[in-house]
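My current task is to audit a protein record that another person submitted. Thanks in advance; the entry in question is below:
***
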Amino acid sequence: MLRLYLAPLFIPFTFGLVFLIQAAHAQGPIPANYDESKVGSYTLPDPLTFNNGEKVTNARQWERRRQELLELFAENVYGRSPAPPKHINFSVFDFDKKALGGKAIRKQVTIYFSANKKGPKEDVLIYLPAGAQKPVPLILSLNFSGNQAVINDPAIKLATVWSRDTHEPQQAKAESRGTDSGFEVEKVLARGYGFATIYYQDIEPDFSGGFAHGVRPLFLKKDQSEPAADDWGAIGAWAYGLSRAMDYLEKDKDVDHSRVAILGHSRLGKTVLWAGAMDRRFAMVVSSCPGEGGASLARRNYGETIRNLTDRFPYQFSANYKKYADDADQLPVDTHELIALLAPRPVYITGAQDDQWADPKGEFLACVAAGPVYRLLGAQDLGTDQMPGLNEPIMHTIGFHYRDGKHAVTDFDWNQFLAFADMHLRSH
Protein backbone atom coordinates (compact mmCIF):
# COMPACT_ATOMS: atom_id res chain seq x y z
CA MET A 1 0.00 0.00 0.00
CA LEU A 2 1.42 3.34 -1.01
CA ARG A 3 1.79 5.81 1.85
CA LEU A 4 3.04 9.20 0.82
CA TYR A 5 3.24 12.24 3.09
CA LEU A 6 3.68 15.49 1.20
CA ALA A 7 4.14 18.82 2.94
CA PRO A 8 2.42 22.04 1.84
CA LEU A 9 4.17 25.35 2.27
CA PHE A 10 2.74 25.91 5.74
CA ILE A 11 2.70 22.37 7.05
CA PRO A 12 1.83 21.80 10.72
CA PHE A 13 4.44 20.44 13.09
CA THR A 14 2.13 17.42 13.29
CA PHE A 15 3.55 16.05 10.08
CA GLY A 16 6.91 17.66 10.58
CA LEU A 17 7.78 18.43 6.98
CA VAL A 18 9.34 15.01 6.87
CA PHE A 19 8.51 14.23 3.28
CA LEU A 20 7.97 10.81 4.79
CA ILE A 21 7.65 8.07 2.22
CA GLN A 22 6.89 4.64 3.56
CA ALA A 23 6.67 2.59 0.38
CA ALA A 24 7.34 4.93 -2.51
CA HIS A 25 10.28 6.79 -3.99
CA ALA A 26 10.46 9.37 -6.76
CA GLN A 27 12.38 6.85 -8.88
CA GLY A 28 10.50 3.79 -7.71
CA PRO A 29 9.61 1.89 -4.54
CA ILE A 30 11.76 2.13 -1.43
CA PRO A 31 12.44 -1.33 -0.06
CA ALA A 32 11.51 -1.51 3.60
CA ASN A 33 11.19 -4.43 5.97
CA TYR A 34 8.32 -4.48 8.47
CA ASP A 35 8.65 -8.13 9.45
CA GLU A 36 10.41 -8.72 12.80
CA SER A 37 11.40 -12.22 11.66
CA LYS A 38 13.45 -10.63 8.87
CA VAL A 39 15.32 -8.11 11.01
CA GLY A 40 18.27 -10.44 11.26
CA SER A 41 20.99 -10.63 13.88
CA TYR A 42 23.35 -7.79 14.69
CA THR A 43 25.93 -6.85 17.28
CA LEU A 44 26.00 -3.34 18.67
CA PRO A 45 29.31 -1.61 19.35
CA ASP A 46 30.00 -1.21 23.06
CA PRO A 47 29.90 2.46 24.14
CA LEU A 48 32.08 1.53 27.12
CA THR A 49 34.94 0.10 25.07
CA PHE A 50 37.64 2.38 23.67
CA ASN A 51 38.68 2.11 20.04
CA ASN A 52 41.78 0.21 21.18
CA GLY A 53 39.69 -2.38 23.04
CA GLU A 54 40.29 -1.02 26.54
CA LYS A 55 37.23 -1.02 28.81
CA VAL A 56 35.74 2.09 30.38
CA THR A 57 35.28 1.55 34.11
CA ASN A 58 34.81 5.04 35.59
CA ALA A 59 33.53 8.52 34.82
CA ARG A 60 36.99 9.94 34.10
CA GLN A 61 37.63 7.31 31.46
CA TRP A 62 34.17 7.96 30.02
CA GLU A 63 35.20 11.54 29.28
CA ARG A 64 37.95 10.23 27.01
CA ARG A 65 35.66 7.65 25.44
CA ARG A 66 33.03 10.35 24.95
CA GLN A 67 35.46 12.35 22.83
CA GLU A 68 36.18 9.26 20.73
CA LEU A 69 32.48 8.76 20.10
CA LEU A 70 31.89 12.41 19.23
CA GLU A 71 34.67 12.20 16.69
CA LEU A 72 33.26 8.98 15.20
CA PHE A 73 29.80 10.49 14.81
CA ALA A 74 31.25 13.68 13.33
CA GLU A 75 33.42 11.84 10.81
CA ASN A 76 30.92 9.20 9.77
CA VAL A 77 27.39 10.52 10.32
CA TYR A 78 26.73 14.22 10.88
CA GLY A 79 30.01 15.81 9.84
CA ARG A 80 32.34 18.09 11.75
CA SER A 81 30.85 21.36 12.92
CA PRO A 82 32.86 24.55 13.39
CA ALA A 83 33.93 25.81 16.78
CA PRO A 84 31.49 28.19 18.45
CA PRO A 85 32.09 31.90 17.83
CA LYS A 86 33.86 33.97 20.47
CA HIS A 87 31.11 36.58 20.36
CA ILE A 88 27.43 36.54 19.50
CA ASN A 89 25.77 39.32 17.52
CA PHE A 90 22.07 39.77 18.19
CA SER A 91 19.35 42.38 18.35
CA VAL A 92 16.11 42.36 20.35
CA PHE A 93 13.45 43.82 18.06
CA ASP A 94 10.37 43.14 20.18
CA PHE A 95 9.70 43.20 23.92
CA ASP A 96 6.16 43.07 25.32
CA LYS A 97 5.43 42.54 29.01
CA LYS A 98 1.71 41.95 28.40
CA ALA A 99 1.68 39.46 25.54
CA LEU A 100 -1.06 36.85 25.08
CA GLY A 101 -3.57 38.91 27.02
CA GLY A 102 -1.17 39.46 29.89
CA LYS A 103 -0.21 35.79 30.28
CA ALA A 104 3.32 36.18 28.99
CA ILE A 105 6.33 38.31 28.29
CA ARG A 106 7.24 38.11 24.62
CA LYS A 107 10.65 38.75 23.12
CA GLN A 108 11.77 38.42 19.53
CA VAL A 109 15.49 38.30 18.88
CA THR A 110 17.54 38.15 15.69
CA ILE A 111 20.83 36.26 15.99
CA TYR A 112 23.39 36.97 13.27
CA PHE A 113 25.75 34.20 12.24
CA SER A 114 28.43 36.66 11.15
CA ALA A 115 29.29 40.34 11.40
CA ASN A 116 27.37 40.91 8.17
CA LYS A 117 23.78 41.56 9.24
CA LYS A 118 22.60 40.88 5.70
CA GLY A 119 24.01 37.39 5.88
CA PRO A 120 22.45 34.25 7.39
CA LYS A 121 20.57 34.84 10.64
CA GLU A 122 17.83 33.32 12.76
CA ASP A 123 14.85 34.83 14.53
CA VAL A 124 14.11 33.46 18.00
CA LEU A 125 10.62 33.86 19.44
CA ILE A 126 10.56 33.71 23.24
CA TYR A 127 7.66 33.65 25.68
CA LEU A 128 8.09 33.72 29.45
CA PRO A 129 5.23 33.17 31.90
CA ALA A 130 4.07 36.49 33.33
CA GLY A 131 4.47 36.75 37.06
CA ALA A 132 6.83 33.79 37.32
CA GLN A 133 9.85 34.11 39.55
CA LYS A 134 12.84 34.80 37.30
CA PRO A 135 14.93 33.25 35.98
CA VAL A 136 12.69 30.51 34.54
CA PRO A 137 13.50 27.15 32.95
CA LEU A 138 12.76 27.08 29.23
CA ILE A 139 11.96 24.69 26.38
CA LEU A 140 13.67 25.61 23.10
CA SER A 141 12.22 24.04 19.96
CA LEU A 142 12.86 24.17 16.26
CA ASN A 143 9.73 24.55 14.12
CA PHE A 144 8.88 23.66 10.53
CA SER A 145 6.51 26.42 9.42
CA GLY A 146 7.78 29.73 10.77
CA ASN A 147 7.56 31.27 14.23
CA GLN A 148 4.18 32.81 13.44
CA ALA A 149 2.66 29.33 13.03
CA VAL A 150 3.27 28.12 16.59
CA ILE A 151 0.64 30.39 18.19
CA ASN A 152 -1.92 32.92 16.98
CA ASP A 153 -0.23 36.15 18.03
CA PRO A 154 -0.44 38.99 15.49
CA ALA A 155 2.74 40.58 16.84
CA ILE A 156 4.98 37.71 15.75
CA LYS A 157 7.15 38.57 12.77
CA LEU A 158 6.06 36.69 9.65
CA ALA A 159 8.89 34.37 8.70
CA THR A 160 10.55 34.10 5.32
CA VAL A 161 9.63 30.53 4.47
CA TRP A 162 11.03 28.26 1.77
CA SER A 163 8.76 26.41 -0.63
CA ARG A 164 9.40 22.70 -0.87
CA ASP A 165 8.12 22.69 -4.44
CA THR A 166 9.91 25.71 -5.95
CA HIS A 167 12.80 26.08 -3.48
CA GLU A 168 12.06 29.80 -3.43
CA PRO A 169 11.70 32.01 -0.35
CA GLN A 170 8.63 34.10 0.35
CA GLN A 171 7.07 35.80 3.32
CA ALA A 172 4.65 33.63 5.26
CA LYS A 173 1.03 34.63 4.93
CA ALA A 174 -0.85 36.14 7.85
CA GLU A 175 -3.38 33.30 7.74
CA SER A 176 -0.60 30.88 8.71
CA ARG A 177 -0.57 32.32 12.24
CA GLY A 178 -1.32 29.67 14.82
CA THR A 179 -1.82 26.92 12.25
CA ASP A 180 0.76 24.55 13.73
CA SER A 181 -1.33 22.32 15.99
CA GLY A 182 1.74 20.50 17.27
CA PHE A 183 2.68 23.23 19.74
CA GLU A 184 1.15 23.81 23.18
CA VAL A 185 2.68 27.19 24.02
CA GLU A 186 0.10 28.31 26.57
CA LYS A 187 0.19 24.92 28.30
CA VAL A 188 3.98 25.25 28.61
CA LEU A 189 3.66 28.74 30.06
CA ALA A 190 0.91 27.71 32.50
CA ARG A 191 3.26 24.99 33.79
CA GLY A 192 5.86 27.64 34.65
CA TYR A 193 8.26 27.12 31.75
CA GLY A 194 9.42 29.58 29.16
CA PHE A 195 9.08 28.65 25.51
CA ALA A 196 11.35 29.60 22.61
CA THR A 197 11.33 28.57 18.99
CA ILE A 198 13.25 29.02 15.74
CA TYR A 199 12.17 28.34 12.16
CA TYR A 200 14.76 25.76 11.20
CA GLN A 201 15.09 26.92 7.60
CA ASP A 202 16.32 30.31 8.85
CA ILE A 203 19.51 28.38 9.57
CA GLU A 204 19.60 26.39 6.34
CA PRO A 205 16.82 25.67 3.83
CA ASP A 206 15.83 22.02 3.80
CA PHE A 207 16.48 20.82 0.26
CA SER A 208 19.39 19.77 -1.90
CA GLY A 209 21.06 23.06 -2.82
CA GLY A 210 19.73 24.82 0.26
CA PHE A 211 23.32 24.77 1.51
CA ALA A 212 24.08 27.91 -0.55
CA HIS A 213 21.45 29.92 1.35
CA GLY A 214 22.36 28.88 4.87
CA VAL A 215 25.04 29.18 7.48
CA ARG A 216 27.48 26.55 6.20
CA PRO A 217 29.10 28.60 3.38
CA LEU A 218 30.38 31.01 6.03
CA PHE A 219 32.81 28.30 7.11
CA LEU A 220 34.11 27.06 3.77
CA LYS A 221 37.86 27.26 3.30
CA LYS A 222 39.20 29.51 0.57
CA ASP A 223 39.63 26.65 -1.88
CA GLN A 224 36.23 25.07 -1.13
CA SER A 225 32.98 25.46 -3.04
CA GLU A 226 31.15 22.66 -1.24
CA PRO A 227 31.55 20.69 1.99
CA ALA A 228 34.27 18.08 2.33
CA ALA A 229 33.28 14.46 2.90
CA ASP A 230 33.55 14.85 6.68
CA ASP A 231 32.10 18.37 6.89
CA TRP A 232 28.78 19.01 8.62
CA GLY A 233 25.47 18.49 6.89
CA ALA A 234 22.20 20.33 7.35
CA ILE A 235 21.48 18.53 10.64
CA GLY A 236 24.77 19.87 11.95
CA ALA A 237 23.80 23.33 10.73
CA TRP A 238 20.41 23.22 12.45
CA ALA A 239 22.13 22.04 15.63
CA TYR A 240 24.55 24.96 15.30
CA GLY A 241 21.56 27.32 15.22
CA LEU A 242 20.27 25.85 18.49
CA SER A 243 23.64 26.44 20.14
CA ARG A 244 23.73 30.04 18.96
CA ALA A 245 20.28 30.54 20.49
CA MET A 246 21.73 29.12 23.69
CA ASP A 247 24.50 31.74 23.48
CA TYR A 248 21.78 34.38 23.62
CA LEU A 249 19.81 32.65 26.38
CA GLU A 250 22.92 32.68 28.56
CA LYS A 251 22.77 36.48 28.35
CA ASP A 252 19.03 36.77 29.05
CA LYS A 253 18.65 37.31 32.79
CA ASP A 254 15.01 36.22 32.69
CA VAL A 255 16.00 32.70 31.59
CA ASP A 256 17.75 30.10 33.73
CA HIS A 257 20.28 28.94 31.16
CA SER A 258 21.19 25.96 33.36
CA ARG A 259 17.65 24.62 32.81
CA VAL A 260 17.13 24.79 29.05
CA ALA A 261 15.65 21.77 27.29
CA ILE A 262 15.69 21.31 23.51
CA LEU A 263 12.87 19.67 21.60
CA GLY A 264 12.50 18.54 18.01
CA HIS A 265 10.34 16.27 15.90
CA SER A 266 11.33 13.90 13.07
CA ARG A 267 14.46 15.24 11.32
CA LEU A 268 14.53 17.89 14.03
CA GLY A 269 14.36 15.06 16.56
CA LYS A 270 17.60 13.83 15.02
CA THR A 271 18.91 17.38 15.22
CA VAL A 272 18.30 17.85 18.94
CA LEU A 273 20.02 14.55 19.74
CA TRP A 274 23.14 15.67 17.89
CA ALA A 275 22.91 19.20 19.30
CA GLY A 276 22.67 17.85 22.83
CA ALA A 277 25.60 15.52 22.24
CA MET A 278 27.83 18.37 21.06
CA ASP A 279 26.61 21.07 23.45
CA ARG A 280 26.39 20.04 27.07
CA ARG A 281 24.81 23.33 28.07
CA PHE A 282 21.44 21.86 27.13
CA ALA A 283 20.06 20.37 30.34
CA MET A 284 17.54 18.03 28.73
CA VAL A 285 16.74 16.65 25.26
CA VAL A 286 13.29 15.69 23.97
CA SER A 287 13.32 13.86 20.64
CA SER A 288 9.98 13.07 19.03
CA CYS A 289 9.86 10.23 16.47
CA PRO A 290 13.49 10.74 15.35
CA GLY A 291 13.73 7.46 13.43
CA GLU A 292 16.70 6.42 11.30
CA GLY A 293 19.72 8.67 11.62
CA GLY A 294 18.40 9.72 15.01
CA ALA A 295 17.43 7.14 17.63
CA SER A 296 16.40 3.96 15.78
CA LEU A 297 19.25 1.46 15.56
CA ALA A 298 20.97 1.54 12.16
CA ARG A 299 21.92 -2.14 12.42
CA ARG A 300 18.27 -3.15 12.80
CA ASN A 301 16.87 -3.90 9.37
CA TYR A 302 13.42 -2.42 9.91
CA GLY A 303 11.66 0.54 8.31
CA GLU A 304 13.81 3.36 6.99
CA THR A 305 17.48 2.64 6.38
CA ILE A 306 20.70 4.55 5.85
CA ARG A 307 20.25 3.90 2.12
CA ASN A 308 16.86 5.63 2.19
CA LEU A 309 18.31 8.63 4.01
CA THR A 310 21.40 9.04 1.88
CA ASP A 311 19.46 8.61 -1.36
CA ARG A 312 16.80 11.17 -0.48
CA PHE A 313 18.46 13.53 2.00
CA PRO A 314 22.24 13.27 1.51
CA TYR A 315 22.69 16.96 2.31
CA GLN A 316 21.50 16.43 5.88
CA PHE A 317 24.53 14.30 6.79
CA SER A 318 28.23 14.15 6.07
CA ALA A 319 29.05 12.68 2.66
CA ASN A 320 30.87 9.87 4.50
CA TYR A 321 27.57 8.55 5.83
CA LYS A 322 26.73 7.12 2.42
CA LYS A 323 29.61 4.65 2.74
CA TYR A 324 27.42 2.64 5.11
CA ALA A 325 24.26 2.71 3.00
CA ASP A 326 24.49 -0.96 2.08
CA ASP A 327 26.21 -2.28 5.20
CA ALA A 328 25.19 -0.61 8.43
CA ASP A 329 27.24 -3.18 10.36
CA GLN A 330 30.38 -1.39 9.17
CA LEU A 331 29.30 1.90 10.74
CA PRO A 332 31.66 2.32 13.72
CA VAL A 333 28.87 3.72 15.92
CA ASP A 334 25.14 3.25 16.38
CA THR A 335 22.38 5.37 17.82
CA HIS A 336 22.53 3.99 21.36
CA GLU A 337 25.91 5.68 21.55
CA LEU A 338 24.41 8.98 20.40
CA ILE A 339 21.93 8.73 23.28
CA ALA A 340 24.79 7.77 25.60
CA LEU A 341 26.58 11.01 24.68
CA LEU A 342 23.78 12.86 26.48
CA ALA A 343 24.47 11.07 29.78
CA PRO A 344 23.92 11.79 32.59
CA ARG A 345 21.45 14.43 31.38
CA PRO A 346 17.80 13.43 30.96
CA VAL A 347 16.58 12.46 27.49
CA TYR A 348 13.06 11.58 26.35
CA ILE A 349 12.36 9.76 23.08
CA THR A 350 9.03 8.86 21.50
CA GLY A 351 7.67 6.46 18.90
CA ALA A 352 4.21 6.01 17.39
CA GLN A 353 2.21 2.93 16.43
CA ASP A 354 1.43 4.18 12.92
CA ASP A 355 5.01 5.30 12.33
CA GLN A 356 6.73 1.97 11.77
CA TRP A 357 8.90 3.64 9.11
CA ALA A 358 10.75 5.26 12.04
CA ASP A 359 11.08 1.87 13.81
CA PRO A 360 9.81 2.68 17.32
CA LYS A 361 11.13 -0.64 18.64
CA GLY A 362 14.57 0.25 17.32
CA GLU A 363 14.34 3.59 19.15
CA PHE A 364 13.41 1.79 22.36
CA LEU A 365 16.25 -0.72 22.01
CA ALA A 366 18.71 2.13 21.50
CA CYS A 367 17.52 3.65 24.79
CA VAL A 368 18.04 0.28 26.48
CA ALA A 369 21.55 -0.07 25.06
CA ALA A 370 22.50 3.43 26.25
CA GLY A 371 21.68 2.35 29.79
CA PRO A 372 25.13 1.14 30.86
CA VAL A 373 26.61 4.60 30.34
CA TYR A 374 23.85 6.23 32.36
CA ARG A 375 24.37 3.73 35.17
CA LEU A 376 28.13 4.27 35.11
CA LEU A 377 27.54 8.00 35.65
CA GLY A 378 25.11 7.45 38.51
CA ALA A 379 21.94 8.10 36.54
CA GLN A 380 18.94 5.87 35.84
CA ASP A 381 18.45 3.77 32.75
CA LEU A 382 15.02 2.71 31.46
CA GLY A 383 14.78 -0.01 34.08
CA THR A 384 13.51 -2.57 31.59
CA ASP A 385 14.42 -4.23 28.31
CA GLN A 386 10.79 -4.98 27.47
CA MET A 387 9.01 -2.69 25.01
CA PRO A 388 6.26 -0.83 26.90
CA GLY A 389 2.62 -1.05 25.94
CA LEU A 390 0.89 1.71 24.03
CA ASN A 391 0.58 4.98 25.92
CA GLU A 392 2.59 3.69 28.89
CA PRO A 393 5.43 6.17 29.45
CA ILE A 394 8.68 5.17 31.13
CA MET A 395 10.26 8.06 32.99
CA HIS A 396 13.66 7.76 34.60
CA THR A 397 16.75 9.69 33.49
CA ILE A 398 16.05 8.09 30.13
CA GLY A 399 12.39 8.40 29.20
CA PHE A 400 10.44 6.73 26.42
CA HIS A 401 6.91 6.21 25.25
CA TYR A 402 5.22 4.39 22.39
CA ARG A 403 1.77 5.84 21.74
CA ASP A 404 -1.05 5.18 19.36
CA GLY A 405 -1.38 7.46 16.35
CA LYS A 406 0.80 8.85 13.62
CA HIS A 407 4.16 10.54 13.07
CA ALA A 408 3.26 13.70 14.96
CA VAL A 409 3.50 15.66 18.18
CA THR A 410 0.24 15.30 20.07
CA ASP A 411 -1.40 16.54 23.24
CA PHE A 412 -0.46 13.22 24.86
CA ASP A 413 3.18 13.85 23.94
CA TRP A 414 3.17 17.32 25.46
CA ASN A 415 1.66 16.02 28.70
CA GLN A 416 4.55 13.55 28.99
CA PHE A 417 7.19 16.10 28.00
CA LEU A 418 6.02 18.48 30.71
CA ALA A 419 5.80 15.71 33.32
CA PHE A 420 9.36 14.72 32.41
CA ALA A 421 10.45 18.36 32.65
CA ASP A 422 8.85 18.58 36.09
CA MET A 423 10.96 15.60 37.18
CA HIS A 424 14.27 16.98 35.93
CA LEU A 425 14.16 20.75 35.46
CA ARG A 426 12.25 21.98 38.49
CA SER A 427 14.76 20.57 40.98
CA HIS A 428 17.85 21.22 38.85
